[in-house]
Amino acid sequence: MSDIPSDEKVHGYAIRQSIVFENDRGFALAENPNAPQPFVTWQFTENEGGRRDYYWGHYTQNADSATKDFEARAAEYQKDYGVAEKAARPEPEVYKYYSTQRTVDIGMFPKTENGPAEIVNFDQRESVENGRFQAWGYLLYHAPLTETQIYDYELRAAPDNPDQFRLLTEQLEQQAQVVGKWEQAKHIPDVRRLTWWYSDFGMFVKNEFVTDEELTGRYEKVMESKARAEQKRAEKMPIAEQRVFMDEKDNYLKNMELSTEQNYDMIDGIPNNIALPVPPSVPVPEEKPLDRVEEPPRRKRSREAIAT
Which of 37, 70, 196, 249 is deepest in the core (most CB within 10 A)? Predict the structure, then answer.
């Protein structure tokens, strides 16, 4: 039996306790201090996505009465149906989507099996996510929306959603150094920078409100720009120097070629080239034996002819 209060609210009542059985039926105890009868016990049905439909509420003004009713209903149901308590399910993930164009109203958001679990409207359009953009409100779901749903309803996913792009620690540090040096060399204004110099660590780090996806996007553009510059430099070199150039440490052109080359036997400074196929040999026609022709009789000399 779950004694841990939940963030879930039903008609203004916050769930305080709940129990669910193996047949996906269960009971819940909830409280709303502002209601005339602040305590209620419900029966509910839980679907595959973990969403619950509540019904058959018993309302009361007394907390002890509500607790006893909750325990009695659960025990009676378990005895009548012979079902065991279901193992505690993990807390569902929460996905937040901001409504950037309008307040959230009927027909203005996608309805799914996983939500919205909660809808919040602001009094006015406000800056959210530390000033990154503005929104009229937000919705919470227990599963991610599709790209089509986000586009159709003009929503914007929160950068902290569980399905957002994440870098490994090593990747994050490496990309931050490349982007930070590039931003410093290009004198990018502070308001547009994705990194800042952390003197205690002696390295560049990602700004707090920059997503991993944004950092990776700029990193890829920096690397592409460097690769093009190295390509032009290599094209102006004699062939012999190009070979030496390809063996230099931290050669962006070589890194690009290693990531795109289809044939690793052709690491030669020309990205994505493949060995030319061997042309098929031209078949030699079979020699047929010549027809045997009977030789004509040898002509006799005139004296030999007279003697015979």
Answer: 70
Query: 16-39 in b/e burial notation, b at 16+ Cβ within 10 A?
Result: bbbbbbeeebbbbbbbbeeeeebb
| Residue position matching structure tokens 């040096």 | 181
- Residue 290 DSSP class: P
pLDDT in tens, 18-29: 999 999 999 999
Residue 302's Cβ-side half-sphere holds a number of Cα atoms within 13 Å equal to 0
287 three-class SS:
coil
Residue given tokens 């309803």 in the structure block: 153
C-alpha radius of gyration, the chain, whole number: 39
The Cα 295–Cα 214 span in angstroms is 93
3-state secondary structure of 186: coil
Between 239 and 144, the more confident residue is 144
**What would the DSSP string read from start to end of 271-285?**
TT--PPPPPPPPPPP
How far apart, in Å, are the Cα atoms of 156 and each of 38, 124, 187?
Answer: 36, 17, 31
Q: What is the pLDDT of residues 100-134, one digit of tens each?
A: 999 999 999 999 998 999 999 999 999 998 788 89
* Among candidate residues 209, 180, 208, the one with its CA nearest the CA of residue 195: 180
